[in-house]
User: Which sequence fits this backbone?
């Protein structure tokens, strides 16, 4: 009886893991599909855009959701900073929670549960934010040239790609973040 119950629990756990894996695949698929239009400047038919609109919440662009673009002066620069620094701050807080747990509980079972919970949370954080943060970082290198000679950042036409802000802040910072996000994770 106990063996059957244990086997049933293992089958149920395996089935739930399969479902989670499929949900992760669907989640990342729609994140990538939603980024195509931005990255490649693709014009989709209206019907397809309405279909994608249903899944736009999966893009997890908190900067746009919170409508911070209307509040800050340097929209792209602020978005780049916030979207790259916030996950690092959250990761640091998770590490501090781990260290505090280790300090208070040593290598006890309670510490192992906390460690596993924090590690799963961190993996989920990186998994969910990786596509949108990577796309935000790469947007720093896409400038458009116009007939009047202006060269502007496609992600934010208020940023001149010849300006000091772009040359000395945005581009070097984004280059450094490539080693943290797309290559580091």
Assistant:
């Amino acid at each position: 009886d106990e063996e059957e119950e244990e086997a049933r629990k293992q089958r149920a756990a395996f089935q739930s893991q399969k479902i989670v894996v499929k949900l992760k695949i669907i989640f990342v698929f729609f994140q990538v599909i939603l980024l195509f239009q931005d990255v490649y400047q693709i014009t989709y038919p209206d019907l397809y855009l309405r279909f994608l609109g249903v899944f736009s919440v999966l893009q997890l662009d908190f900067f746009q959701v919170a409508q911070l673009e209307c509040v800050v002066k340097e929209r792209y620069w602020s978005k780049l900073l916030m979207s790259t620094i916030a996950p690092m701050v959250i990761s640091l807080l998770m590490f501090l929670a781990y260290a505090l747990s280790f300090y208070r509980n040593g290598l006890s079972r309670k510490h192992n549960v906390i460690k596993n919970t924090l590690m799963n949370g961190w993996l989920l954080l990186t998994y969910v934010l990786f596509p949108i943060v990577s796309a935000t970082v790469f947007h720093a290198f896409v400038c458009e040239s116009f007939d009047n000679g202006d060269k502007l950042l496609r992600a934010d036409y208020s940023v001149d790609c010849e300006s000091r802000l772009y040359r000395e802040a945005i581009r070097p910072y984004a280059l450094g973040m490539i080693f943290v996000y797309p290559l580091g994770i």
Remarks:
- The longest helix spans residues 2-40.
- The two ends are 45 Å apart (CA to CA).
- DSSP finds six helices and three strands in the chain.
- The first strand starts at residue 143 and ends at 145.
